């Protein structure tokens, strides 16, 4: 006979009394599930927007793009025969007025642009009219930021290269532009026909030619792309379909989503400790009922069913509330975070992230409930004959151990299976297990220390210490939950602090002031001379630069090669190339030898050691680069360790002399300039060389910092959720010990203690507990931040004591405040009623 | 499901409780404590036995052993002809369900359930037909048919103990164990409860073993068992026990 219907009936009767005792349980589950569900919904919303708008963002069914050069006549004919084609050219350039200049993202479009959607313009809605030549001058459209930086308005003139344009409209929205994660300059849009007059398109200039194609009816894009590859196998173009319209954005949002989900999961796991405490506390309060049921003939499994049903009902309520909040959060907060998102998230109900968040909640509830439930199974019915029964500390029955292990294992599996970056998720699972073990150990040590120090003379201190180590003390739960929350917060604070320090303090010291790009070979001598003459200019470095795509790795086409995730970025787009006879200053060879200065022989290349490892390449292997449509196979002569964080000139690939000199290319230069001379130097260079663009490192760093601060804010909010979960656990633990504290306070009063002394003992207890948790969390958080920064992000780590101390002090204050708020009632209790009932 | 020889037990044994040389040692922080030191007791079917003795003499522990709530360190326990050593925890629960009703000093009603539900619980456990009808009849028998839907907190102490009595008798057990059933009640209410309990035991032909400090109550039983320091000092008819004590 199944006992489940009876168990459900009994559970329903017990639950009629309301949710009392389940407050912390519900809050912990709701919070964690809401965090995961809202991140999941937001990411799904962005992905949905990218998917739905893929064709619009791409600007057609297919986009073909080249760097440095346009399509050949034969290629263009093939494209033109396939449907409607729009040609777009993009490059970085300087926009100038008489007294100001700014770096811009220049976009030259043909009459077909845009094939899909429309450019939203303020001031003049018709793009053709905007570009039309009037009074001898062509028109342009620009973003508001461009106008602000140049101090001009619609109707004013701006110069780009050798040409002058009249701004006739303000760009409010481009259909094919997803907000880039990192942009250095605002947009200016001109007609394709107006580009030659600027003089910016020169051999080797960093220009991107894009051909967007709306295929004629009946042509299947995938089949067409296959045909294109067969017809032009070595074209060296980048082919994108709508599903890859914004791969960078998609990767970025998935990665950020994963980080935030993991932080949300941490909050849920921290809340899991609260779930376990709440279940244990609830069941402790039910000891008499359980014993009565057993006395009346209820077998153990029926008792377990009765309480498992109750716990699952509560879990369902908590998870349901969390999911509802998670579904609503993107709608409520979507506008607040919209500026941080590359595309506007599509508001909607997304079942998959909801199901995943719900599954996380359910598995967490099970993982943390089964163990205390096992104790209910063991409540002896004889408890009814004894006034006090010590809680069972026996190891639970095998079924409960297996059930807990299965639930925890499923939780880990779900974490890994649903993660975009599985190795990272595996690291998270291992790290979480290690953190639980570490904090459990730390709690044990804290309790031991409290016990060994418990013979101090001060009664308040003695009571405080005794409360930290006595049987049934909440120390382990509080140290674990608060500690993990704090670890995450300390880690994020330290990483953010270190990144900010790099960007604000270290990088400006070691990074150059300017990058100058697109210097033509015939301009280098004049550029060098100008820089020598300008006041305030320090070291100037100048190297040849061109771009190429990695086409084959050890002879295998990149699409078929097995490449590690952290090296994938190297094949996603064009890479910068240079050539050199001497080992560049600051370069560090980690394998192989630099070639002789007078080398002349088959192509040799110096490669980034980290990427080479990710591609499984070593010394002597070959790598094939498509440069300007021509494939160059070079043998790896040496590997370098590149420190990208210096923001100096670094190249993934450096060729030996004799290979690239003949290819059309430009030069890139860096210059250290005294801050007070930066304006003058920029003006002098861009006036003298209209085709040269200057990038101020300060501006770039500011853009990077803005981007990072957005990410950090999101991380802090989610980490704060973790800490809130920790605080809930703390509150729950204090509520659970309320009866004992009231009893202690009453007995102390009977013995003559004043309220102040009892209060003092409580403050000392919570301060010691908070300080102990903080000390352990600060240590573990700092080590984790150090490892992440030095091993994963390859950035120097500096311990920031003020950052950690601030976080620590705030936490101790919260612990004391929550602790006192929870126990204040204990102080006010009159001794008599309690003693009468004791 | 654990099975037990119910019919066999009922027909084969004249004694419903047989304790033979029962010892119980418990280990505490202070060391090993001998709670029971060789207790022998037989209780005949239909007999009413009072167990008296000072606090800590082992009365409640002996009752727990009879109820299968505690296992002796040594000795043999037979209840209704069944050797309790042969049952696991769940088997003991099923055995209690069928054979033993228990009444506590602190009532131990389930706070979340109404009076009716409290009485119905053992019937539901046993899977009997119409448990609520029978529970209603049981409550009527203790004079609480007007309090069916009240929760324990809404009942007086005496009413709570009546509900507890109705619950203990719900399965019409052959053996009723009562641990100081009037300990938490005033004298008048206590006397009424005792009258009711004796009456119910009589009508249902249940054997009654009750722990009490009340000499008057003990004298109403067929036999008084006096315990001290984990041993039975004497077990005699009330008159003899009273004489022995003097």
Low-pLDDT segments, ≥5 res of chain B: 1-12
Mean pLDDT of chain B: 85
Distance between the termini of chain A: 42 Å
The percentage helix of chain B is: 25-40%
Which class of chain B in CATH terms?
Alpha Beta
Query: What separation lies between the terminal Cα atoms of chain B?
Result: 51 Å
Strand adjacency order, main sheet of chain B: 6-7-8-3-9-10
Compute the number of strand runs of chain A: 21
Portion of residues in beta strands of chain A equals 15-25%
Largest β-sheet summary of chain A: 6 strands, mixed, barrel
| Coarse morphology of chain A | elongated
Average of pLDDT of chain A:
84
Number of domains of chain A: 4
Structural class by SSE content of chain B: alpha/beta
The level of helicity of chain A is 40-55%
What is the CATH architecture term of chain B? 3-Layer(aba) Sandwich
CATH superfamily of chain B: P-loop containing nucleotide triphosphate hydrolases
Q: What attributes does this structure have?
A:
heterodimer, A: alpha+beta, 4 domains, 6-stranded mixed beta barrel, 24 helices, 53% helix, B: 246 residues, alpha/beta, Rossmann fold, 4-stranded antiparallel β-sheet
Please specify the SSE layout and strand pairing.
The complex is a heterodimer of chains A (838) and B (246).
Chain A: H1 4-15, H2 23-52, H3 54-58, E1 62-67, H4 73-80, E2 83-96, E3 101-109, E4 120-122, H5 127-131, E5 139-143, H6 144-150, E6 157-160, E7 163-173, E8 187-191, E9 207-215, H7 221-231, E10 238-240, H8 247-285, H9 287-295, H10 300-337, H11 351-377, H12 398-417, H13 422-452, H14 459-469, H15 475-510, E11 514-519, H16 524-533, E12 537-553, E13 556-557, H17 569-572, E14 575-579, E15 588-592, E16 604-608, H18 609-614, E17 622-627, E18 630-641, E19 653-655, E20 666-673, H19 678-688, E21 693-696, H20 697-736, H21 738-750, H22 755-792, H23 801-828, H24 831-837
Parallel strand pairs in A: 3-8, 5-7, 14-19, 16-18
Antiparallel strand pairs in A: 1-9, 1-10, 2-3, 2-6, 2-9, 4-7, 5-8, 6-7, 11-20, 11-21, 12-13, 12-14, 12-17, 12-20, 15-18, 16-19, 17-18
Helix pairs in contact in A: 1-10, 2-8, 2-10, 2-11, 2-20, 8-11, 8-15, 8-20, 10-11, 11-12, 12-13, 13-14, 13-15, 13-22, 14-22, 15-20, 15-22, 15-23, 20-23, 21-23, 22-23
Chain B: H1 6-12, E1 15-28, E2 31-44, E3 48-52, H2 59-66, E4 74-79, E5 82-83, H3 89-99, E6 100-103, H4 115-126, H5 131-141, H6 157-169, E7 175-179, H7 187-204, E8 207-211, H8 215-219, E9 223-228, E10 231-236, H9 238-245
Parallel strand pairs in B: 3-8, 3-9, 6-7, 7-8
Antiparallel strand pairs in B: 1-2, 1-4, 4-5, 9-10
């Amino acid at each position: 006979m199944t006992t489940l219907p009876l168990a459900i009936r009994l559970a329903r009767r017990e639950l009629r009394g309301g949710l009392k005792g389940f407050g912390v349980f519900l809050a912990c589950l709701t919070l964690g599930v809401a965090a995961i569900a809202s991140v999941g919904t937001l990411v799904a919303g962005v992905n949905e927007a990218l998917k739905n708008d893929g064709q619009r963002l791409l600007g057609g069914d297919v986009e073909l793009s080249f760097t440095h050069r346009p399509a050949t006549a034969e290629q263009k004919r093939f494209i033109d025969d396939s449907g409607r084609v729009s040609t777009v050219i993009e490059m970085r350039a300087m926009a100038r007025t008489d007294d100001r200049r700014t770096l811009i993202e220049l976009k030259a479009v043909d009459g077909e642009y845009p094939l899909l959607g429309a450019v939203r313009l303020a001031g003049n809605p018709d793009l053709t009219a905007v570009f039309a030549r009037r009074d001898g001058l062509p028109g342009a459209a620009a973003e508001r930021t461009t106008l602000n930086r140049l101090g001009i308005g619609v109707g004013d003139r701006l110069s780009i290269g050798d040409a002058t344009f009249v701004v006739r409209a303000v760009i409010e929205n481009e259909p094919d532009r997803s907000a880039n994660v990192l942009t250095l300059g605002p947009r200016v849009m001109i007609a394709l026909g107006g580009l030659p007059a600027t003089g910016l398109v020169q051999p080797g200039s960093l220009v991107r030619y894009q051909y967007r194609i709306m295929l004629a009816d009946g042509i299947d894009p995938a089949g067409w792309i296959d045909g294109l590859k067969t017809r032009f196998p070595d074209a060296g173009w980048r082919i994108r379909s709508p599903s890859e319209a914004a791969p960078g954005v998609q990767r970025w949002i998935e990665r950020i989503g994963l980080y935030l989900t993991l932080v949300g999961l941490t909050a849920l796991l921290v809340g899991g400790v609260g779930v376990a405490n709440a279940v244990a506390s609830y069941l402790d309060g039910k000891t008499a009922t359980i014993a009565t049921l057993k006395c009346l003939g209820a077998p153990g499994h029926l008792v377990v069913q009765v309480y498992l049903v109750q716990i699952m009902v509560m879990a369902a309520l908590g998870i349901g509330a969390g999911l509802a909040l998670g579904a609503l959060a993107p709608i409520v907060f979507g506008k607040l975070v919209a500026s941080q998102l590359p595309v506007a998230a599509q508001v909607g109900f997304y079942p998959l992230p909801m199901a995943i968040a719900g599954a996380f909640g359910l598995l967490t509830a099970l993982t943390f409930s089964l163990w205390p439930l096992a104790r209910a199974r063991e409540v002896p019915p004889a408890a009814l004959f004894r006034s006090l029964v010590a809680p069972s500390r026996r190891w639970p029955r095998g079924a409960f151990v297996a059930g807990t292990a299965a639930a925890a294992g499923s939780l880990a599996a779900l974490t890994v299976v649903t993660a975009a970056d599985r190795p990272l998720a595996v690291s998270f699972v291992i790290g979480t297990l290690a953190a639980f073990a570490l904090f459990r150990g730390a709690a044990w040590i804290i309790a031991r220390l409290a016990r060994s120090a418990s013979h101090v003379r001060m009664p308040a201190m003695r009571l405080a210490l005794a409360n930290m180590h006595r049987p049934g003390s909440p120390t382990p739960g509080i140290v674990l939950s608060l500690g993990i929350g704090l670890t995450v917060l300390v880690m994020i604070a330290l990483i953010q602090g270190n990144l900010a320090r790099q960007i604000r303090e270290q990088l400006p010291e070691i990074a150059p002031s300017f990058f100058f790009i697109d210097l033509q070979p015939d301009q280098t001598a004049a550029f060098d001379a100008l820089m020598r003459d300008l006041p305030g200019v320090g070291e100037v470095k100048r190297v040849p630069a061109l771009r190429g795509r990695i086409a084959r790795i050890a002879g295998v086409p990149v699409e078929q090669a097995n490449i590690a995730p952290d090296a994938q970025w190297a094949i996603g787009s064009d890479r910068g190339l240079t050539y050199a006879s001497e080992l560049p200053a600051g370069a560090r060879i980690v394998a192989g030898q630099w070639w002789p200065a007078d080398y002349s022989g088959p192509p040799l290349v110096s490669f980034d050691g980290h990427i080479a490892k990710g591609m499984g390449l070593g010394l002597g292997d070959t790598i094939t680069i498509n440069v300007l449509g021509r494939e160059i196979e070079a043998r790896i002569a040496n590997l370098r360790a590149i420190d990208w964080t210096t923001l100096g000139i670094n190249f993934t690939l450096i060729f030996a002399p004799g290979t690239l000199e003949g290819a059309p290319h430009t030069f890139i230069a860096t210059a250290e300039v005294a801050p007070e001379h930066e304006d003058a130097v920029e003006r002098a260079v861009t006036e003298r060389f209209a085709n040269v663009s200057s990038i101020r490192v300060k501006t770039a760093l500011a853009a990077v910092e803005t981007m990072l601060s957005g990410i950090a804010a999101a991380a802090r909010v989610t980490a704060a959720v973790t800490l809130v979960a920790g605080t809930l656990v703390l509150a729950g633990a204090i509520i659970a010990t309320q009866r004992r504290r009231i009893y202690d306070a009453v007995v102390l009063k009977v013995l003559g203690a004043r309220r102040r002394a009892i209060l003092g003992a409580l403050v000392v207890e919570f301060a010691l507990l908070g300080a102990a948790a903080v000390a352990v969390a600060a240590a573990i958080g700092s080590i984790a931040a150090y490892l992440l920064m030095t091993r994963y992000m390859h950035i120097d780590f500096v311990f920031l004591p003020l950052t950690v101390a601030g976080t620590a002090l705030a936490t101790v204050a919260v612990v004391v405040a929550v602790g006192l708020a929870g126990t204040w009632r204990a102080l006010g209790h009159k001794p008599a009623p309690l003693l009468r009932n004791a | 499901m654990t099975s037990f020889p119910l019919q066999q037990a009922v027909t084969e044994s004249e004694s419903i409780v047989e304790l033979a040389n029962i010892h119980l040692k418990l280990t505490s922080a202070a060391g090993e404590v001998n709670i029971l030191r060789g207790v022998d007791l037989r209780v005949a079917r239909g007999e009413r036995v009072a167990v008296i003795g000072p606090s800590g003499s082992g009365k409640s522990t002996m009752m727990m052993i009879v109820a299968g709530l505690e296992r002796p360190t040594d000795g043999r326990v037979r209840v209704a002809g069944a050797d309790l050593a042969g049952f696991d925890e769940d088997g003991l629960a099923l055995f209690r369900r069928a054979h033993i009703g228990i009444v506590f000093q602190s009532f131990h009603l389930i706070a979340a359930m109404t009076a009716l539900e409290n009485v119905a619980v053992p019937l539901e456990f046993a899977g009997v037909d119409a448990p609520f009808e029978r529970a209603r009849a049981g409550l009527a028998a203790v004079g609480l048919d007007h309090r069916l839907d009240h929760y324990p907190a809404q009942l007086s102490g005496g009413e709570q103990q009546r509900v507890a009595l109705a619950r203990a008798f719900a399965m019409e057990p052959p053996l009723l164990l009562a641990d100081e059933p009037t300990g938490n009640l005033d004298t008048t209410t206590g006397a009424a409860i005792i009258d009711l309990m004796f009456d119910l035991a009589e009508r249902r032909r249940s054997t009654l073993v009750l722990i009490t400090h009340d000499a008057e109550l003990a004298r109403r039983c067929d036999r008084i068992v006096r315990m001290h320091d984990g041993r039975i000092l004497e077990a005699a008819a009330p008159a003899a026990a009273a004489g022995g004590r003097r």
